[in-house]
Amino acid sequence: MAAHLYHDQIGISHSELSQREYRRWLESHDRASVLSSSGGSVQQQTLISVLLPVYNTPPDVLIACLESVLAQTCGRWELCISDDASTRRDTADVLVRYAGRDPRIRIEKRASNGHISAATNTALAMAGGEFVALLDHDDLLHPDAILEVVTAACANPEWHLIYTDEDKLDRRGRRSDPYFKPDYNPELLTAQNYISHLGVYRTAIVRELGGFQIGYEGCQDWDLALRFCERVGASAIGHIPKVLYHWRMSATSTAEDTSVKPYVQQVAMKVLTDHVRRVRPGASVRRLNWPYGAFRVQEGPPADEHVSVIVWEQAGQPIDCLGNMFETLGSTMSVEVIIPVNNGNIAKRWFGDHVPGALSLKVLGTTNTNPAESRNEAARMAKGSILVFVNKDIDAFSKGWLDELVAQARRPDIGVVGAKIYDPRGWVTDGAFVLGGAGGINVAFGGLDSAAVGPRARALHVQDVSAVSGACMAMRANVFHSIGGFSHASVESLVAADLCLRIRANGYRTIWTPYVELYMHEISGASPVQGQNVHGERAWLFQHYPKELLADPFYSTNLEATPAHFKLAT
Length: 570
Fold this sequence. Notes:
Elements: H1 2-8, H2 16-29, E1 48-54, H3 59-70, E2 77-83, H4 89-101, E3 105-109, H5 115-126, E4 131-134, E5 140-141, H6 145-155, E6 161-169, E7 175-179, H7 186-189, E8 199-202, H8 203-208, H9 220-232, E9 237-248, H10 263-279, E10 284-288, E11 294-298, E12 306-312, H11 322-327, E13 334-341, H12 344-351, E14 360-365, H13 371-381, E15 386-391, E16 394-396, H14 401-409, E17 414-422, E18 428-430, E19 432-435, E20 441-443, E21 463-464, E22 467-468, E23 472-476, H15 477-482, H16 495-505, E24 509-520, H17 534-544, H18 546-550
Parallel strand pairs: 1-2, 1-4, 2-3, 6-9, 12-13, 12-15, 13-14, 17-24
Antiparallel strand pairs: 4-8, 5-9, 6-7, 6-8, 10-11, 15-23, 16-24, 17-18, 17-23, 19-20, 19-22, 21-24
Helix pairs in contact: 3-4, 9-10
Protein name: Glycosyltransferase
GO molecular function: glycosyltransferase activity
EC number: 2.4.-.-
Protein backbone atom coordinates (compact mmCIF):
# COMPACT_ATOMS: atom_id res chain seq x y z
CA MET A 1 0.00 0.00 0.00
CA ALA A 2 2.76 2.45 0.89
CA ALA A 3 4.47 1.95 -2.45
CA HIS A 4 1.25 2.64 -4.34
CA LEU A 5 0.60 5.79 -2.31
CA TYR A 6 4.07 7.01 -3.18
CA HIS A 7 3.41 6.09 -6.81
CA ASP A 8 0.22 8.17 -6.91
CA GLN A 9 2.03 11.28 -5.72
CA ILE A 10 4.75 11.53 -8.34
CA GLY A 11 2.75 12.71 -11.31
CA ILE A 12 1.32 9.55 -12.81
CA SER A 13 -2.24 10.71 -12.22
CA HIS A 14 -3.81 14.12 -12.68
CA SER A 15 -4.57 14.40 -8.98
CA GLU A 16 -5.22 17.74 -7.33
CA LEU A 17 -2.23 17.07 -5.09
CA SER A 18 0.18 16.74 -8.01
CA GLN A 19 -1.31 19.81 -9.71
CA ARG A 20 -0.83 21.89 -6.56
CA GLU A 21 2.76 20.70 -6.21
CA TYR A 22 3.49 21.51 -9.82
CA ARG A 23 1.91 24.96 -9.63
CA ARG A 24 4.04 25.76 -6.59
CA TRP A 25 7.10 24.57 -8.48
CA LEU A 26 6.21 26.76 -11.47
CA GLU A 27 6.08 29.86 -9.27
CA SER A 28 9.82 29.65 -8.64
CA HIS A 29 11.08 27.79 -11.72
CA ASP A 30 9.13 29.14 -14.68
CA ARG A 31 9.66 32.81 -15.41
CA ALA A 32 9.61 33.98 -19.01
CA SER A 33 12.48 36.01 -20.40
CA VAL A 34 12.14 39.77 -20.55
CA LEU A 35 13.92 39.96 -23.90
CA SER A 36 12.04 41.70 -26.68
CA SER A 37 11.38 40.01 -29.99
CA SER A 38 14.07 42.09 -31.64
CA GLY A 39 16.81 41.89 -29.00
CA GLY A 40 19.88 39.69 -28.65
CA SER A 41 22.53 39.01 -31.27
CA VAL A 42 22.18 35.24 -30.80
CA GLN A 43 18.65 35.46 -32.12
CA GLN A 44 19.86 36.64 -35.51
CA GLN A 45 21.86 33.50 -36.26
CA THR A 46 19.28 30.74 -36.64
CA LEU A 47 15.81 30.76 -38.17
CA ILE A 48 13.26 28.30 -36.79
CA SER A 49 10.41 27.25 -39.07
CA VAL A 50 7.40 26.22 -37.00
CA LEU A 51 5.36 23.59 -38.87
CA LEU A 52 1.64 23.78 -38.10
CA PRO A 53 -0.79 21.42 -39.84
CA VAL A 54 -4.39 22.57 -39.37
CA TYR A 55 -7.72 20.87 -39.98
CA ASN A 56 -11.07 22.26 -38.83
CA THR A 57 -9.58 23.59 -35.61
CA PRO A 58 -12.10 25.43 -33.40
CA PRO A 59 -11.36 29.17 -33.66
CA ASP A 60 -10.72 29.75 -29.95
CA VAL A 61 -8.24 26.86 -29.80
CA LEU A 62 -6.49 27.91 -33.00
CA ILE A 63 -6.24 31.53 -31.89
CA ALA A 64 -4.60 30.50 -28.62
CA CYS A 65 -2.07 28.41 -30.57
CA LEU A 66 -1.25 31.25 -32.98
CA GLU A 67 -0.98 33.79 -30.19
CA SER A 68 1.55 31.57 -28.40
CA VAL A 69 3.77 31.82 -31.48
CA LEU A 70 3.34 35.57 -31.79
CA ALA A 71 4.22 35.93 -28.10
CA GLN A 72 7.68 34.44 -28.54
CA THR A 73 10.47 36.45 -26.89
CA CYS A 74 12.72 35.58 -29.84
CA GLY A 75 11.75 36.94 -33.23
CA ARG A 76 13.71 34.49 -35.39
CA TRP A 77 10.83 32.29 -36.48
CA GLU A 78 8.45 31.74 -39.35
CA LEU A 79 5.13 29.93 -39.06
CA CYS A 80 4.42 27.54 -41.93
CA ILE A 81 0.72 26.61 -41.80
CA SER A 82 -0.67 23.79 -43.89
CA ASP A 83 -4.47 23.92 -44.01
CA ASP A 84 -5.42 20.32 -44.75
CA ALA A 85 -8.54 21.27 -46.76
CA SER A 86 -10.54 22.44 -43.72
CA THR A 87 -14.29 22.57 -44.31
CA ARG A 88 -14.98 25.01 -41.45
CA ARG A 89 -15.21 28.58 -42.69
CA ASP A 90 -14.39 30.03 -39.27
CA THR A 91 -11.09 28.10 -39.21
CA ALA A 92 -10.11 29.56 -42.60
CA ASP A 93 -11.13 33.05 -41.47
CA VAL A 94 -8.81 32.88 -38.46
CA LEU A 95 -5.89 31.79 -40.64
CA VAL A 96 -6.42 34.58 -43.17
CA ARG A 97 -6.71 37.18 -40.42
CA TYR A 98 -3.49 36.13 -38.71
CA ALA A 99 -1.55 35.86 -41.97
CA GLY A 100 -2.45 39.51 -42.56
CA ARG A 101 -1.13 40.50 -39.13
CA ASP A 102 2.44 39.24 -39.50
CA PRO A 103 4.52 38.51 -42.62
CA ARG A 104 6.25 35.64 -40.80
CA ILE A 105 2.96 33.70 -40.95
CA ARG A 106 2.46 31.87 -44.25
CA ILE A 107 -0.41 29.59 -45.24
CA GLU A 108 -0.86 26.98 -47.93
CA LYS A 109 -4.32 25.54 -48.49
CA ARG A 110 -4.22 21.93 -49.62
CA ALA A 111 -6.59 20.91 -52.41
CA SER A 112 -7.65 17.73 -50.60
CA ASN A 113 -7.46 16.31 -47.12
CA GLY A 114 -4.36 14.13 -46.79
CA HIS A 115 -4.20 13.74 -43.00
CA ILE A 116 -1.39 14.65 -40.63
CA SER A 117 1.69 13.25 -42.42
CA ALA A 118 0.85 14.74 -45.82
CA ALA A 119 -0.22 18.03 -44.27
CA THR A 120 3.01 18.32 -42.28
CA ASN A 121 5.03 17.55 -45.41
CA THR A 122 3.27 20.47 -47.11
CA ALA A 123 4.37 22.72 -44.25
CA LEU A 124 7.88 21.26 -44.47
CA ALA A 125 8.09 22.19 -48.14
CA MET A 126 7.38 25.82 -47.17
CA ALA A 127 10.14 25.97 -44.51
CA GLY A 128 13.10 28.25 -45.03
CA GLY A 129 14.65 27.85 -41.60
CA GLU A 130 17.69 25.85 -40.59
CA PHE A 131 15.48 23.94 -38.14
CA VAL A 132 11.83 22.93 -38.13
CA ALA A 133 9.80 22.83 -34.91
CA LEU A 134 6.68 20.64 -34.73
CA LEU A 135 3.55 22.25 -33.29
CA ASP A 136 0.07 20.71 -33.07
CA HIS A 137 -2.83 23.00 -33.93
CA ASP A 138 -4.42 22.78 -30.48
CA ASP A 139 -1.27 23.18 -28.35
CA LEU A 140 0.76 26.13 -27.06
CA LEU A 141 4.40 27.14 -27.05
CA HIS A 142 5.98 28.62 -23.93
CA PRO A 143 6.99 32.27 -24.62
CA ASP A 144 10.68 31.33 -24.41
CA ALA A 145 10.48 28.20 -26.57
CA ILE A 146 12.11 29.62 -29.71
CA LEU A 147 14.60 31.69 -27.71
CA GLU A 148 15.80 28.64 -25.79
CA VAL A 149 16.04 26.51 -28.92
CA VAL A 150 17.95 29.16 -30.89
CA THR A 151 20.32 29.75 -27.99
CA ALA A 152 20.98 26.02 -27.65
CA ALA A 153 21.48 25.60 -31.40
CA CYS A 154 24.02 28.42 -31.52
CA ALA A 155 25.90 27.12 -28.47
CA ASN A 156 25.92 23.55 -29.83
CA PRO A 157 26.36 23.65 -33.62
CA GLU A 158 26.78 19.86 -33.67
CA TRP A 159 23.18 19.36 -32.54
CA HIS A 160 20.77 18.32 -35.29
CA LEU A 161 17.83 17.43 -33.03
CA ILE A 162 16.78 19.48 -30.01
CA TYR A 163 13.91 18.55 -27.73
CA THR A 164 12.46 20.05 -24.56
CA ASP A 165 10.37 19.05 -21.57
CA GLU A 166 6.59 19.41 -21.78
CA ASP A 167 3.44 19.53 -19.70
CA LYS A 168 -0.30 19.46 -20.29
CA LEU A 169 -3.14 21.96 -20.17
CA ASP A 170 -6.30 20.61 -18.60
CA ARG A 171 -9.77 21.68 -19.76
CA ARG A 172 -9.65 24.66 -17.42
CA GLY A 173 -6.34 25.83 -18.89
CA ARG A 174 -4.27 24.79 -15.88
CA ARG A 175 -0.79 23.40 -16.40
CA SER A 176 -0.30 19.91 -15.04
CA ASP A 177 1.42 16.55 -15.51
CA PRO A 178 4.93 17.70 -16.47
CA TYR A 179 7.28 15.32 -18.22
CA PHE A 180 10.82 16.04 -17.06
CA LYS A 181 12.70 14.03 -19.63
CA PRO A 182 16.11 12.40 -19.67
CA ASP A 183 18.79 13.37 -22.12
CA TYR A 184 18.99 11.14 -25.17
CA ASN A 185 18.03 7.64 -24.02
CA PRO A 186 17.99 5.38 -27.09
CA GLU A 187 16.64 2.35 -25.25
CA LEU A 188 13.72 4.26 -23.74
CA LEU A 189 12.91 5.72 -27.16
CA THR A 190 12.05 2.20 -28.35
CA ALA A 191 9.37 2.02 -25.64
CA GLN A 192 7.85 5.49 -25.85
CA ASN A 193 8.20 8.68 -27.86
CA TYR A 194 9.54 10.75 -25.00
CA ILE A 195 11.13 13.23 -27.46
CA SER A 196 7.68 14.26 -28.68
CA HIS A 197 7.08 17.95 -27.78
CA LEU A 198 8.85 20.23 -28.39
CA GLY A 199 10.84 18.44 -31.09
CA VAL A 200 13.06 20.61 -33.31
CA TYR A 201 14.89 19.00 -36.25
CA ARG A 202 17.52 20.19 -38.71
CA THR A 203 15.52 20.84 -41.85
CA ALA A 204 17.97 19.44 -44.41
CA ILE A 205 18.13 16.07 -42.67
CA VAL A 206 14.34 15.80 -42.34
CA ARG A 207 14.09 16.38 -46.08
CA GLU A 208 16.87 13.89 -46.74
CA LEU A 209 14.86 11.30 -44.81
CA GLY A 210 11.78 12.01 -46.92
CA GLY A 211 9.84 13.90 -44.28
CA PHE A 212 6.84 12.26 -42.65
CA GLN A 213 5.80 8.85 -43.93
CA ILE A 214 2.30 8.36 -45.27
CA GLY A 215 0.53 5.52 -43.49
CA TYR A 216 2.08 6.30 -40.10
CA GLU A 217 -0.54 8.84 -39.04
CA GLY A 218 -0.92 8.95 -35.27
CA CYS A 219 2.71 8.01 -34.66
CA GLN A 220 4.34 10.03 -37.42
CA ASP A 221 6.43 12.02 -34.93
CA TRP A 222 7.78 8.85 -33.27
CA ASP A 223 8.63 7.38 -36.66
CA LEU A 224 10.52 10.54 -37.60
CA ALA A 225 12.34 10.66 -34.27
CA LEU A 226 13.55 7.05 -34.60
CA ARG A 227 14.68 7.46 -38.20
CA PHE A 228 16.33 10.78 -37.42
CA CYS A 229 18.22 9.44 -34.39
CA GLU A 230 19.41 6.46 -36.43
CA ARG A 231 20.78 8.90 -38.99
CA VAL A 232 22.57 11.43 -36.75
CA GLY A 233 23.74 9.50 -33.67
CA ALA A 234 23.78 10.37 -29.97
CA SER A 235 26.24 13.27 -30.10
CA ALA A 236 23.93 15.24 -32.42
CA ILE A 237 20.90 15.06 -30.11
CA GLY A 238 20.40 17.74 -27.47
CA HIS A 239 17.90 18.19 -24.66
CA ILE A 240 16.77 21.44 -23.04
CA PRO A 241 15.52 20.52 -19.53
CA LYS A 242 12.84 23.19 -19.45
CA VAL A 243 9.07 22.92 -19.95
CA LEU A 244 8.60 24.79 -23.23
CA TYR A 245 5.55 23.08 -24.72
CA HIS A 246 1.98 22.78 -23.41
CA TRP A 247 -0.05 19.84 -24.69
CA ARG A 248 -3.79 20.48 -24.54
CA MET A 249 -6.01 17.81 -22.98
CA SER A 250 -9.40 17.29 -24.62
CA ALA A 251 -11.98 14.62 -25.28
CA THR A 252 -10.35 13.80 -28.63
CA SER A 253 -6.72 14.08 -27.58
CA THR A 254 -4.39 11.30 -26.46
CA ALA A 255 -2.98 13.79 -23.97
CA GLU A 256 -5.92 12.84 -21.76
CA ASP A 257 -6.67 9.27 -22.81
CA THR A 258 -4.73 7.11 -25.28
CA SER A 259 -7.82 4.95 -25.89
CA VAL A 260 -9.58 7.74 -27.83
CA LYS A 261 -7.46 6.80 -30.85
CA PRO A 262 -7.24 2.99 -30.78
CA TYR A 263 -5.65 2.85 -34.23
CA VAL A 264 -2.55 4.49 -32.77
CA GLN A 265 -1.52 1.20 -31.13
CA GLN A 266 -1.46 -0.59 -34.48
CA VAL A 267 0.56 2.22 -36.05
CA ALA A 268 2.95 2.27 -33.09
CA MET A 269 3.58 -1.44 -33.57
CA LYS A 270 4.39 -0.78 -37.22
CA VAL A 271 6.75 2.11 -36.40
CA LEU A 272 8.67 0.10 -33.83
CA THR A 273 8.83 -3.04 -35.96
CA ASP A 274 10.29 -1.04 -38.84
CA HIS A 275 12.90 0.47 -36.53
CA VAL A 276 13.92 -2.92 -35.12
CA ARG A 277 14.29 -4.38 -38.59
CA ARG A 278 16.64 -1.55 -39.52
CA VAL A 279 18.92 -1.55 -36.48
CA ARG A 280 18.45 -4.75 -34.43
CA PRO A 281 18.29 -7.81 -36.72
CA GLY A 282 17.00 -10.87 -34.91
CA ALA A 283 14.98 -8.91 -32.36
CA SER A 284 11.19 -8.82 -32.31
CA VAL A 285 8.46 -6.51 -30.99
CA ARG A 286 5.72 -7.62 -28.62
CA ARG A 287 2.77 -5.63 -27.43
CA LEU A 288 2.41 -5.92 -23.67
CA ASN A 289 -0.92 -6.62 -22.05
CA TRP A 290 -1.29 -3.31 -20.22
CA PRO A 291 -4.39 -1.12 -20.46
CA TYR A 292 -2.63 1.95 -21.88
CA GLY A 293 -0.57 0.03 -24.43
CA ALA A 294 3.16 -0.61 -24.29
CA PHE A 295 5.75 -2.51 -26.27
CA ARG A 296 8.81 -4.62 -25.65
CA VAL A 297 11.71 -5.14 -28.03
CA GLN A 298 12.95 -8.64 -27.30
CA GLU A 299 16.26 -10.08 -28.44
CA GLY A 300 16.46 -13.58 -29.88
CA PRO A 301 17.32 -16.46 -27.50
CA PRO A 302 21.06 -16.73 -26.77
CA ALA A 303 21.22 -20.53 -26.98
CA ASP A 304 24.74 -20.64 -28.42
CA GLU A 305 26.50 -18.67 -25.66
CA HIS A 306 28.87 -19.95 -23.01
CA VAL A 307 28.17 -17.99 -19.84
CA SER A 308 30.24 -17.67 -16.68
CA VAL A 309 28.27 -16.76 -13.56
CA ILE A 310 30.58 -15.44 -10.85
CA VAL A 311 29.12 -15.53 -7.35
CA TRP A 312 30.49 -13.24 -4.67
CA GLU A 313 30.41 -15.51 -1.63
CA GLN A 314 32.19 -13.31 0.97
CA ALA A 315 34.02 -14.82 3.92
CA GLY A 316 32.68 -18.36 3.70
CA GLN A 317 29.05 -17.43 4.37
CA PRO A 318 26.50 -19.97 3.09
CA ILE A 319 25.22 -19.51 -0.42
CA ASP A 320 21.59 -20.00 0.43
CA CYS A 321 19.73 -19.21 -2.78
CA LEU A 322 21.57 -20.09 -5.97
CA GLY A 323 19.86 -23.43 -6.37
CA ASN A 324 16.57 -21.65 -6.97
CA MET A 325 18.20 -19.21 -9.37
CA PHE A 326 19.48 -21.87 -11.69
CA GLU A 327 16.25 -23.84 -11.63
CA THR A 328 14.72 -20.85 -13.47
CA LEU A 329 17.29 -20.70 -16.27
CA GLY A 330 14.91 -21.72 -19.04
CA SER A 331 17.56 -22.08 -21.75
CA THR A 332 20.08 -24.47 -23.24
CA MET A 333 23.07 -22.18 -22.81
CA SER A 334 26.30 -23.60 -21.52
CA VAL A 335 26.69 -22.20 -18.00
CA GLU A 336 29.57 -22.42 -15.57
CA VAL A 337 29.35 -21.14 -11.99
CA ILE A 338 32.52 -19.80 -10.40
CA ILE A 339 32.72 -19.08 -6.68
CA PRO A 340 35.82 -17.33 -5.36
CA VAL A 341 35.96 -18.36 -1.68
CA ASN A 342 38.37 -18.68 1.20
CA ASN A 343 37.03 -22.14 2.18
CA GLY A 344 36.45 -24.02 -1.06
CA ASN A 345 35.74 -27.41 0.53
CA ILE A 346 32.85 -26.12 2.62
CA ALA A 347 31.35 -24.16 -0.28
CA LYS A 348 31.67 -27.03 -2.74
CA ARG A 349 30.17 -29.57 -0.37
CA TRP A 350 27.12 -27.38 0.25
CA PHE A 351 26.76 -26.02 -3.26
CA GLY A 352 27.02 -29.41 -4.90
CA ASP A 353 23.72 -30.43 -3.36
CA HIS A 354 21.86 -27.45 -4.79
CA VAL A 355 23.01 -26.96 -8.37
CA PRO A 356 21.33 -28.71 -11.31
CA GLY A 357 23.59 -31.32 -12.85
CA ALA A 358 23.79 -29.53 -16.21
CA LEU A 359 25.80 -26.71 -14.68
CA SER A 360 29.55 -26.67 -14.39
CA LEU A 361 30.79 -25.65 -10.92
CA LYS A 362 34.23 -24.19 -10.28
CA VAL A 363 35.28 -23.18 -6.79
CA LEU A 364 38.22 -20.79 -6.82
CA GLY A 365 40.17 -21.02 -3.60
CA THR A 366 41.67 -17.63 -2.90
CA THR A 367 43.35 -15.81 -0.06
CA ASN A 368 42.55 -12.45 -1.60
CA THR A 369 40.28 -10.51 0.75
CA ASN A 370 39.72 -7.59 -1.63
CA PRO A 371 36.26 -8.15 -3.18
CA ALA A 372 37.08 -6.43 -6.47
CA GLU A 373 40.32 -8.32 -7.03
CA SER A 374 38.70 -11.60 -6.00
CA ARG A 375 36.06 -11.16 -8.71
CA ASN A 376 38.73 -10.13 -11.22
CA GLU A 377 40.59 -13.33 -10.41
CA ALA A 378 37.44 -15.34 -11.06
CA ALA A 379 36.86 -13.48 -14.35
CA ARG A 380 40.35 -14.37 -15.53
CA MET A 381 39.57 -18.01 -14.80
CA ALA A 382 36.20 -17.85 -16.61
CA LYS A 383 35.73 -19.51 -20.00
CA GLY A 384 32.48 -17.78 -20.92
CA SER A 385 32.07 -15.07 -23.53
CA ILE A 386 29.50 -13.48 -21.18
CA LEU A 387 30.25 -12.73 -17.53
CA VAL A 388 27.41 -12.44 -15.01
CA PHE A 389 28.28 -11.20 -11.52
CA VAL A 390 25.79 -11.91 -8.73
CA ASN A 391 25.84 -11.58 -4.96
CA LYS A 392 25.33 -14.70 -2.86
CA ASP A 393 22.07 -13.38 -1.33
CA ILE A 394 20.30 -12.90 -4.69
CA ASP A 395 17.46 -15.18 -5.76
CA ALA A 396 15.43 -15.31 -8.98
CA PHE A 397 11.71 -15.70 -9.50
CA SER A 398 11.39 -14.81 -13.19
CA LYS A 399 11.94 -17.74 -15.54
CA GLY A 400 14.50 -17.02 -18.22
CA TRP A 401 16.26 -14.30 -16.20
CA LEU A 402 19.69 -15.35 -17.45
CA ASP A 403 18.46 -15.51 -21.07
CA GLU A 404 17.36 -11.87 -20.86
CA LEU A 405 20.63 -10.70 -19.30
CA VAL A 406 22.75 -12.54 -21.83
CA ALA A 407 20.61 -11.55 -24.83
CA GLN A 408 20.99 -7.87 -23.90
CA ALA A 409 24.71 -8.17 -23.09
CA ARG A 410 25.42 -9.71 -26.51
CA ARG A 411 24.40 -6.53 -28.32
CA PRO A 412 27.55 -4.85 -29.69
CA ASP A 413 26.80 -1.37 -28.32
CA ILE A 414 25.85 -2.54 -24.83
CA GLY A 415 28.56 -2.60 -22.16
CA VAL A 416 26.68 -3.57 -18.98
CA VAL A 417 23.19 -4.89 -18.19
CA GLY A 418 21.52 -4.63 -14.78
CA ALA A 419 18.42 -6.15 -13.18
CA LYS A 420 15.37 -5.14 -11.13
CA ILE A 421 15.95 -6.26 -7.55
CA TYR A 422 13.36 -6.42 -4.75
CA ASP A 423 13.72 -6.79 -1.00
CA PRO A 424 11.73 -9.46 0.92
CA ARG A 425 8.74 -7.07 1.13
CA GLY A 426 8.53 -6.93 -2.66
CA TRP A 427 9.79 -3.35 -2.93
CA VAL A 428 12.50 -2.24 -5.37
CA THR A 429 15.71 -1.97 -3.37
CA ASP A 430 18.49 -2.16 -5.94
CA GLY A 431 19.20 -2.24 -9.66
CA ALA A 432 19.50 1.00 -11.63
CA PHE A 433 21.47 3.91 -10.17
CA VAL A 434 20.94 7.67 -10.47
CA LEU A 435 24.04 9.80 -9.92
CA GLY A 436 24.09 13.06 -7.96
CA GLY A 437 22.43 14.34 -4.81
CA ALA A 438 23.65 14.18 -1.24
CA GLY A 439 24.59 10.50 -1.38
CA GLY A 440 26.28 10.61 -4.77
CA ILE A 441 24.52 7.48 -5.97
CA ASN A 442 20.88 6.49 -5.47
CA VAL A 443 18.58 3.65 -6.49
CA ALA A 444 16.08 4.53 -9.23
CA PHE A 445 12.48 3.47 -8.51
CA GLY A 446 13.45 2.64 -4.92
CA GLY A 447 10.38 1.81 -2.83
CA LEU A 448 8.08 0.92 -5.72
CA ASP A 449 6.45 -2.48 -5.53
CA SER A 450 6.34 -4.99 -8.36
CA ALA A 451 2.91 -3.80 -9.56
CA ALA A 452 3.80 -0.10 -9.76
CA VAL A 453 4.55 1.30 -13.22
CA GLY A 454 6.56 4.26 -11.94
CA PRO A 455 6.73 7.76 -13.42
CA ARG A 456 5.72 7.74 -17.09
CA ALA A 457 5.74 3.94 -16.85
CA ARG A 458 9.53 4.01 -16.80
CA ALA A 459 9.73 1.24 -14.18
CA LEU A 460 8.35 -1.11 -16.85
CA HIS A 461 10.79 -0.38 -19.68
CA VAL A 462 14.34 -1.30 -20.61
CA GLN A 463 16.32 1.95 -20.62
CA ASP A 464 19.76 3.50 -20.56
CA VAL A 465 21.09 4.36 -17.09
CA SER A 466 24.37 5.73 -15.75
CA ALA A 467 25.16 2.64 -13.67
CA VAL A 468 23.69 -0.58 -12.29
CA SER A 469 24.18 -2.55 -9.11
CA GLY A 470 26.92 -5.14 -8.74
CA ALA A 471 24.36 -7.39 -7.03
CA CYS A 472 23.54 -8.57 -10.55
CA MET A 473 25.26 -7.32 -13.68
CA ALA A 474 26.17 -8.91 -17.01
CA MET A 475 28.66 -7.95 -19.72
CA ARG A 476 30.77 -9.43 -22.48
CA ALA A 477 34.07 -10.77 -21.23
CA ASN A 478 36.08 -8.82 -23.80
CA VAL A 479 34.49 -5.56 -22.64
CA PHE A 480 35.23 -6.36 -19.00
CA HIS A 481 38.86 -7.21 -19.66
CA SER A 482 39.41 -4.26 -22.02
CA ILE A 483 38.99 -1.79 -19.15
CA GLY A 484 40.90 -3.85 -16.60
CA GLY A 485 37.93 -5.25 -14.69
CA PHE A 486 36.83 -3.96 -11.30
CA SER A 487 39.01 -1.31 -9.74
CA HIS A 488 40.15 -2.49 -6.30
CA ALA A 489 41.15 1.08 -5.47
CA SER A 490 37.55 2.25 -5.34
CA VAL A 491 35.22 2.09 -2.34
CA GLU A 492 33.57 -1.36 -2.27
CA SER A 493 29.98 -0.13 -2.53
CA LEU A 494 30.95 1.98 -5.56
CA VAL A 495 32.88 -0.73 -7.43
CA ALA A 496 29.97 -1.48 -9.78
CA ALA A 497 29.20 2.18 -10.53
CA ASP A 498 32.88 2.83 -11.19
CA LEU A 499 32.99 -0.11 -13.61
CA CYS A 500 29.89 1.13 -15.48
CA LEU A 501 31.25 4.65 -15.82
CA ARG A 502 34.61 3.44 -17.10
CA ILE A 503 32.90 1.19 -19.64
CA ARG A 504 30.67 4.08 -20.73
CA ALA A 505 33.77 6.26 -21.18
CA ASN A 506 34.94 3.64 -23.69
CA GLY A 507 31.87 4.14 -25.86
CA TYR A 508 29.51 1.47 -24.54
CA ARG A 509 26.06 1.87 -23.02
CA THR A 510 24.72 0.65 -19.67
CA ILE A 511 21.11 -0.51 -19.67
CA TRP A 512 18.67 -1.73 -17.03
CA THR A 513 16.00 -4.33 -17.73
CA PRO A 514 12.88 -4.81 -15.58
CA TYR A 515 12.40 -8.20 -17.26
CA VAL A 516 15.02 -9.69 -14.93
CA GLU A 517 13.32 -9.67 -11.54
CA LEU A 518 15.37 -10.85 -8.58
CA TYR A 519 15.03 -10.93 -4.81
CA MET A 520 17.65 -9.81 -2.33
CA HIS A 521 17.21 -11.93 0.80
CA GLU A 522 18.05 -9.06 3.14
CA ILE A 523 16.43 -5.62 3.30
CA SER A 524 19.08 -3.13 2.22
CA GLY A 525 17.15 0.14 2.51
CA ALA A 526 17.28 1.00 -1.21
CA SER A 527 20.81 2.40 -0.97
CA PRO A 528 24.03 0.89 -2.31
CA VAL A 529 26.04 2.74 0.36
CA GLN A 530 24.20 1.50 3.44
CA GLY A 531 26.38 1.07 6.49
CA GLN A 532 29.38 2.92 5.06
CA ASN A 533 30.70 6.46 5.08
CA VAL A 534 28.38 8.28 2.69
CA HIS A 535 30.40 11.48 2.80
CA GLY A 536 33.61 9.60 2.07
CA GLU A 537 32.07 7.79 -0.87
CA ARG A 538 30.58 11.00 -2.26
CA ALA A 539 34.03 12.58 -2.00
CA TRP A 540 35.55 9.63 -3.87
CA LEU A 541 32.93 9.90 -6.61
CA PHE A 542 33.42 13.65 -6.99
CA GLN A 543 37.17 13.18 -7.19
CA HIS A 544 36.92 10.63 -9.99
CA TYR A 545 33.67 11.61 -11.73
CA PRO A 546 32.97 15.32 -11.10
CA LYS A 547 31.17 15.87 -14.40
CA GLU A 548 28.96 12.79 -14.10
CA LEU A 549 27.77 13.78 -10.62
CA LEU A 550 26.73 17.27 -11.66
CA ALA A 551 23.76 15.90 -13.60
CA ASP A 552 22.74 12.37 -14.47
CA PRO A 553 21.91 12.43 -18.21
CA PHE A 554 19.26 9.74 -17.78
CA TYR A 555 17.41 11.47 -14.96
CA SER A 556 16.50 15.19 -14.81
CA THR A 557 17.93 18.19 -13.04
CA ASN A 558 14.33 19.19 -12.26
CA LEU A 559 13.85 16.10 -10.07
CA GLU A 560 15.19 15.18 -6.66
CA ALA A 561 18.23 12.94 -6.92
CA THR A 562 18.29 11.93 -3.26
CA PRO A 563 16.32 9.78 -3.14
CA ALA A 564 15.78 9.18 -6.86
CA HIS A 565 11.98 9.11 -6.63
CA PHE A 566 11.22 11.30 -9.66
CA LYS A 567 9.64 13.95 -7.43
CA LEU A 568 9.96 17.67 -8.14
CA ALA A 569 13.20 19.16 -6.90
CA THR A 570 12.85 22.03 -4.48
